[in-house]
Amino acid sequence: MDRIRIRGGRPLSGEIAISGAKNAALPLMAAGLLTEERLILANVPRLEDIRTMTTLLAQHGLEVAPLDPERRRLAIGGLIRNTEAPYDIMRKMRASILVLGPLLARAGEARVSLPGGCAIGTRPVDLHLKGLEQMGAEIRLEGGYIAARVAGRLRGASIVFPSVSVGATENLLMAASLADGVTELSNAAREPEIEDLARCLNAMGARIGGIGTGHLTIEGVARLSGAEHSIMPDRIEAGTYACAAAVTGGEIVLRNARPDHLGAVVRTLGCSGVDVSETPEGMRVARRNALAGADVMTEPYPGFPTDLQAQFMAVMAVAEGASMITETIFENRFMHVPELNRMGARINVHGSSAIVRGVPELSGAPVMASDLRASVSLIVAGLAAHGETTVNRVYHLDRGYDRIEQKLAACGADIERIPG
Ligand code: EPZ
């Protein structure tokens, strides 16, 4: 297994190009199941999860073809020949559950492995299933699989989510696009990735209203056509590199980043003494003074994103004073804490909150990656730490970060991948 070695203490300076958003690309690729015509996606990031979704769609019978040598544009289309999503793909990537709604809408049936939990939590899919049942699907759980079918078309329904779910909103948005009648999704997730998906679906002929709000109205249509859509930039990647600049006391430009997608993060970094400004090419992040501790509570968008909690904690580990970081979305998203403490951080977890007492300096150490965002928080910490940090099991990183060591090295970081 590859490892990444960092010798910390060097302020970052330069420019990083932000890639297309992983969490927009995955549902957008699943939307390719909604039409037999070609859906062309541009600004596709080079990630392991994209390769996994490509494999999943191909085994459903679709053709997923790169339209350029860089594989930044993908053409997805064709007939559905298999309505089963197998466990061996689902266990690699939980987002595979996003084929459930489209398969039911297009083929009237689906047999999708239950995703199971992952490092950060049990990750149930009950909200997905309850919504599809309200739209007329018959759903049985058997042998670790979801067996779903509908006689004829799904029908429009008025669905109120008891709690906000990004994936359930996406699955039901796609299913409702081809349903018979009007569907209302209330208390829907408002993440920018959902807005990106809705705009692509409308370009395919869907009739979605309320985009960007927590109340979506979908007037089902009989069929959807192909379209061409450019994937939004990855706000979590941008926020991650903003944390890297903050923790090293550097100044970087994040090309293509959208500060309007990171309002809560920009405000919180500002409270910590980090200057974030909009520029014609994207976003500039600079830290010239001492870091100050700031409190954070993760919330559904537009609140502080859970996917940046670990990275921000690495910044607070070397801030002056204390900060309290509360994780409200997932029940087990503090796996980075023991590893950061091995680097000299002073972090105590009390239930869903972590108290971080800033220290003057972290010290490099061999550390273990556990999930995608915990792994990258160790990279962020290693960039600031005195000495050498080696992050093991970096396959977690490759799922969600496009060439991270190259992007950081180009900004002056002493970082390299050691093939294992
Ligand atoms: C998406 O996961 C993202 N993944 C996650 O990013 C992100 O952390 C999460 O949204 C929250 O923003 C993708 O977009 C591929 P949820 P998702 O459904 O859809 C509970 C990353 O690092 N819940 O909004 O699975 C659930 O357990 C990944 O890129 C139910 O109880 O998240 C969680 O506590 C990690 N029942 C909360 O809701 C359900 O049916 C939010 O989950 C569904 C979810």
Brief summary of the model shown:
This protein has 420 residues and is an alpha/beta fold. It contains 14 helices and 24 strands.
Largest sheet: number of strands, sense, barrel closure:
4 strands, mixed
Strand content: 15-25%
> How much is the radius of gyration in Å?
21 Å
Query: Could you estimate the helical fraction of the residues in percent?
Result: 25-40%
Helix/strand-derived category reads alpha/beta
Number of beta-strand segments:
24
Strand order of the largest sheet: 22-23-1-24
Ions, cofactors and other bound molecules? ligand EPZ
- Mean of the pLDDT scores? 96
Estimate the global geometry from the Cα principal axes.
globular
**Uncertain stretches:** none
**Amino-to-carboxy terminus distance:** 4 Å
Descriptive report:
The structure is a single chain. With 420 residues, the protein is α/β, with parallel strands linked by helices. It contains 14 helices and 24 strands. The strands form 6 sheets. A 4-stranded mixed sheet has the order 22-23-1-24. A hairpin with a 5-residue loop joins strand 12 and strand 13. The protein is globular. The model has no long low-confidence stretch (mean pLDDT 96). The site of ligand EPZ has 23 residues, from helix 1, helix 5, helix 6 and helix 12.
